[in-house]
Specification:
heterodimer, A: about 425 residues, mainly alpha, 2 domains, 20 helices, about 70% helix, globular, B: about 650 residues, Immunoglobulin-like, 12-stranded mixed sheet, 11 helices, 28 strands
């Protein structure tokens, strides 16, 4: 199993190295779909240049990275390409190992359920075989490393790749059951872009499941666990924030990084929903809609956690997808991270309703982004509405994709409880509906 | 902050060293110049002594006006002073006993080599008073009360405001006496007693906006900067802490009659008498370039600077294009240009003169000047010794028998040799598309063998996000690292970028400065009413001490023509020049302004689709669908029920 992974890594690194050397790299680094004001490499370099000039990088409105990123690239700015390739490799390997471990657990659980005869008898075709699960970890790594979105993001040196690596390591440590490391990496991810905060819930659910702590509000063990985890999480967050303060000696980075993410002052077009909406917003409704849109990202955490409390890894997938759709400055790198999980849910394919349509729309939109951008910005023959329309379509497609997987997952669970071939009262074949 | 001050003082030190070096370096040449100059000076001084008798058998029958007095002993340190530091000697006026206030007016006409005519009006009011005292100044004679109140209310130390229509073409016209960028420019030094400079500045701009009928109220924090080195006080005062300095330009400002009228009203004689009768807007605005300005600064009354007085200098520079005025022959007269002739000086003026630059026309072979004047004057201006014919309007004889003065220049030959200006700059935006771009600034040093440092000031609005790491400075194909960079990055919707650099320009070279920027998409309410016209970026300001070919007049105690005495000169070997580049017009990407409702609806729909589908899956559960009977069957059952027969 290690050999194909090594081969995959070599192929992925080669593709990236070739692209870094080609003239495309400069073009890709300017693409608004690939880099956002937060993650653009150009802005990291600018921040370092400002630091060299003796100006605080947060004195202006160009640099929005966290102080740790500055600190990191202060040393490795000359090896940036290697750093970003390494970040991708780490992400892929972490996801690979995490999914491998997760699959083992899934299989074990399935075995217990089968032994306890908990599944209905007509569900045998829903049971997952080790043979089909064998290549899933490799597919996950492949989906991440060879995804054009990831490649573009890496070649553009978008720091999104680093954030993905942190999140992937967080997932790995969580699945491995290491509470402390999980909290630390979650805190790192939060520190980088706030939104991974919502991954707190699945992480706790998963760790509790592993430690056989029931999710019951009346149990002291539950609360003890929550307090422990939150303490580690908040403690490391506190340490990180203080460390950042001591790195630059000022709190300027707080409004410049987190204020920037939350208040969306930069309306540079991207693939998200925020930019055009807030460019066209009436000034007195701005704050209201800003709150609505930002709450929207965090809003689904609690209902999803309740619904999926038995399946925290799927919850992680859902949360990552929701974040990458509704965050304020999304890039294709964010999408690549949750798309890497799609092979994990390959057993859901028989329940997906419109995967063909959605994948066609996603592909078409990805092709149309540069075309319409060119028409608007360079040719002048289109206007902003064209590009905006494509972002809308792209987001609708993502929403449909995610909700489709969610539907399929719930449906499979339902079948595993009630049997695959359901019958009506009169004995005819039944159709399943949501009510 | 401390680092800034350190580097700032380092710059001063460098400037200081440079100037010393230049002085030493040019000692040989200036010596010979001086020698030559003294030879020339001798007949002047001689002529001065016999001017009263008017019976001088001069070289020709022209007289030299008594503008150049014997060299006086200059304090040694005066020559080593730099432009940056102001000393009490900076502007010292003649030590003659004077009334408390004094008004002078002056018109300089210079035929330009491009065939255009440059006319520069200067009106100076001096008033020995103290606006900053506790008791209010209430009695105004020559000084305009509106400005006096502004000075005392806002604790202004220096105020410089200019309104300019058109762009001064340095390469064709040479250096102007008073440079000004297109649009409106305002820079103010406040007294160090002002606590909240920003609030005072805001209030001041609004008041000035009313006084000059201009859109100065559009000056806010997004176009105001505090230059660290480029704008030093021109009057006395040794405060150089730039936190009391505010500088703003409005490159889009259109200058027209409504700005000229209030400007004329500030003059003691209004436009009723004196040179100001020539300022008719229908002619002035039919010109290639028009710049009107007001400069207020404290100056010394005497060399010891025991008493200070306030100087109000109102200047108006205009360039007329002779070719567009329709005549085939090149002929210029006061009447033709201003549609007025002069009949008297302003009765309140202590001096009222017209200077015509005849340096290029010593023998009268280029043009003919009528009526001829016997009075000549020499002045060193902008590093060049110029000769002027002088008409003194306070003398009745100037107006002749017709009691009206209509100066006339009639050209004989059209060839003219252009002395290229030593320092010249231009700027443009490169790149295509609406995403990124690059600002190129070209600075030309036309001096054949001397290099000199220049200070470049760039203030770029926040919506063009500059990337300072892309800054390159190249001269003669080589990297030319600026010895000082002061960069203040922008804050969105709050303050502009400020970039100040000290660059050494090698002799006879072009220095190119490029910096990349990114164009921001603004909120739809932040665009101007004509968004696709583009957004203006104010001129770059290039300030420099340019090596002079002749010895500059550092002794400011002598009576000088107004046009040559504005920028205080600290050393003989160089003179101060400020060059403004073209303003830039940059297009930004625009949203569709007709779409706010649609965009809000459509985006909210997408969010609702997301919310709806997740809500659906979260709250509902899977159930087996029990088919409802068909419509026909249901209808039949209803009828059956009414009939009382068993249902189907």
């Amino acid at each position: 199993m290690a050999a194909p992974l090594t081969l995959l890594l070599i192929v992925a690194v080669t593709i990236r190295a070739v692209l870094f050397r080609s003239s495309l790299a400069e073009l890709i680094a300017e693409r608004v779909e690939v880099v956002s004001p937060i993650t653009a490499w150009k802005r990291v370099v600018e921040g370092l240049a400002l630091l060299d000039l003796g100006v605080s990088p947060y004195a202006g409105d160009v640099f929005h990275e966290t102080p740790l990123i500055i600190y990191l690239f202060h040393f490795v700015v000359d090896y940036a390409e290697i750093t970003f390739m390494l970040a991708d490799v780490i992400t892929a390997v972490a996801l690979y190992m995490a999914v491998k471990d997760y699959n083992k657990q899934v299989f074990r659980k399935q075995k217990f359920a089968l032994e306890a005869d908990r599944y209905p008898h007509d569900c045998l075709e829903l049971i997952r075989s080790p043979r089909e699960m064998y290549y899933i970890p490799l597919k996950v790594a492949m989906f991440y490393l060879l995804n054009p979105f990831t490649i573009l993001s890496c070649v553009a040196k978008s720091t999104c790749g680093l954030n993905n690596a942190v999140v992937a390591v967080f997932i790995l440590t969580t699945i491995k059951g290491n509470m402390l490391l999980s909290a630390i990496f979650l805190c790192l991810a939060t520190y980088q872009s706030i939104y991974p905060l919502t991954l707190c819930a699945p992480a706790m659910l998963y760790l509790m499941q592993r430690q056989y702590i029931p999710v019951n509000f009346r149990r002291a063990s539950f609360w003890w666990f929550v307090v422990q985890y939150l303490f580690m999480y908040l403690g490391s967050l506190f340490v990180l924030i203080c460390l950042s303060f001591f790195l630059l000696g000022s709190w300027d980075y707080l409004p410049s990084v987190y204020g920037f993410i939350l208040s969306v002052p930069d309306l540079t077009p991207n693939i998200g929903l925020f930019w055009y909406f807030f460019a066209e917003m009436f000034e007195h409704f701005r704050l209201f809609f800003l709150c609505v849109f930002q709450i929207n990202v965090f809003f689904y955490t609690i209902p999803l956690s309740i619904k999926l409390k038995e399946h925290p890894v799927f919850l992680i997938f859902m949360q990552l997808a929701v974040i990458s759709i509704f965050k304020s400055y999304p890039t294709v790198g964010d999408i690549a991270l949750y798309m890497a999980f799609l092979p994990v849910w390959s057993h859901l394919h028989r329940f997906l309703r419109n995967i063909f349509l959605v994948s066609c729309v996603l592909l078409a939109c990805s092709a149309l982004f540069p075309v319409l951008w060119h028409l608007w910005i360079y040719a002048g023959s289109a206007n902003s509405n064209f590009y905006y329309a494509i972002t809308l379509l792209f987001n609708v497609a993502q929403i449909l994709l995610v909700s489709d997987y969610f539907y399929a997952f719930l449906r499979r669970e339902h079948h595993l409880t009630y049997g695959l071939y359901l019958k009506r009262k009169d004995g005819s074949e039944a159709t399943l509906v949501l009510k | 902050m401390a680092a800034h001050r350190c580097s700032y003082s380092a710059v001063l030190f460098i400037l200081f060293n440079l100037s010393v070096f230049i002085v030493v370096d040019s000692h040989q040449t200036t010596l010979t110049n001086d020698h030559h100059g003294s030879v020339v000076d001798n007949p002047q001084t001689a002529s001065e002594t016999v001017e009263q008798t008017a019976a001088q058998p001069a070289v020709d029958d022209r007289r030299w006006e008594a503008t150049e007095v014997e060299e006086e002993a200059i304090p040694d340190d005066a020559s080593t002073d730099t432009q940056g530091t102001s000393t009490p000697e900076s502007v010292v006026l003649s030590s003659l006993p004077k009334p408390k206030d004094d008004f002078q007016e002056e018109l300089v006409v210079r035929p330009l080599d491009s065939g255009d005519i440059y006319a520069s009006f200067q009106f100076r009011t001096l008033w020995e008073t103290d606006f900053m005292r506790g008791n209010k100044v209430s009695h105004y004679r020559l000084f305009p009360k509106s400005l006096g109140q502004v000075i005392s209310k806002f604790s202004v130390r220096e105020l410089h405001i200019s309104f300019t229509q058109g762009y001064w073409r340095t390469m064709q016209w040479g250096q102007p006496f008073l440079p000004a960028p297109p649009g409106a420019e305002l820079w103010v030094w406040f007294q160090d007693t002002v606590t909240d400079v920003d609030a005072t500045w805001k209030e001041l701009t609004n008041v000035l906006s009313g006084i000059f009928c201009a859109s100065l109220n559009f000056i806010d924090s997004t176009n105001t900067v505090q230059p660290s080195a480029s704008f030093k006080p021109l009057g006395i005062g040794n405060v150089t802490d730039h936190q009391f300095l505010r500088y703003a330009t409005l490159p889009r400002e259109i200058v027209c009659t409504e700005n000229l009228t209030p400007w004329k009203k500030l003059l003691p004689c209004g436009s009723k008498a004196g040179l100001a009768v020539l300022l008719k807007s229908e002619k002035l605005f039919h010109s290639s370039f028009l710049s009107q300005a007001v400069h207020i600064r404290p100056v010394c009354q005497d060399q010891q600077c025991k008493t200070t007085s306030w100087e109000l200098r109102q200047t108006l520079n205009v360039v007329f294009d002779l070719h567009t005025s329709g005549q085939s022959k090149r002929e210029w007269s006061l009447f033709k240009m201003f549609s007025r002739t002069l009949t008297e000086a302003c009765p309140l003026a202590s001096s009222s003169k017209i200077h015509i630059d005849i340096t290029d026309n010593p023998e009268g072979e280029q043009f003919e000047l009528s009526p001829a004047t016997p009075l000549l004057s020499q002045a060193v201006v902008l590093g060049d010794r110029r000769t002027f014919s002088v008409y003194d309007l306070t003398q009745q004889t100037t107006f002749g028998a017709v009691r009206s003065l209509n100066l006339l220049i009639r050209w004989k030959s059209s060839e003219g040799h252009m002395l290229r200006p030593l320092l010249h700059a231009e700027r443009y935006v490169a790149g295509y598309g609406l995403q990124t771009g690059e600002i190129h600034t070209l600075m030309y040093n036309n001096h054949p063998f001397r290099s000199f440092p220049v200070l470049l000031l760039d203030s770029v609005p926040w919506y063009l996000r500059l990337y300072i790491h892309t800054l390159t400075v190249t001269s003669k194909g080589k990297d030319n690292k600026p010895s000082y960079i002061h960069y203040q990055p922008s804050k969105d919707r709050l303050r502009p970028h400020l970039l100040e650099m000290l660059v050494q320009l090698p002799p006879n070279s072009v220095t190119e400065i490029t910096v990349q920027f990114e164009r921001a998409l603004l909120k739809w309410t932040e665009y101007t009413p004509d968004p696709n016209h583009g957004f203006y970026v104010g001129s770059s300001v290039i300030s420099s001490l340019v090596p002079s070919t002749v010895a500059m007049d550092t002794n400011s105690t002598r009576e000088q023509p107004l046009f040559s005495s504005f920028f205080p000169c600290k050393e003989e070997s160089s003179f101060f020049v400020r060059v403004y580049t073209e303003p830039l017009l940059v297009n930004l990407p625009t949203p569709d302004f007709s779409m706010p409702y649609n965009v809000i609806c459509l985006t909210c729909t997408v969010v609702a689709v997301g919310y709806g589908s997740l809500y659906n899956l979260l709250t509902r559960s899977f159930q087996i669908e029990e088919p409802s009977p068909g419509l026909a069957k249901r209808l039949a059952n209803i009828i059956r029920k009414m009939r009382g027969v068993p249902l189907l």
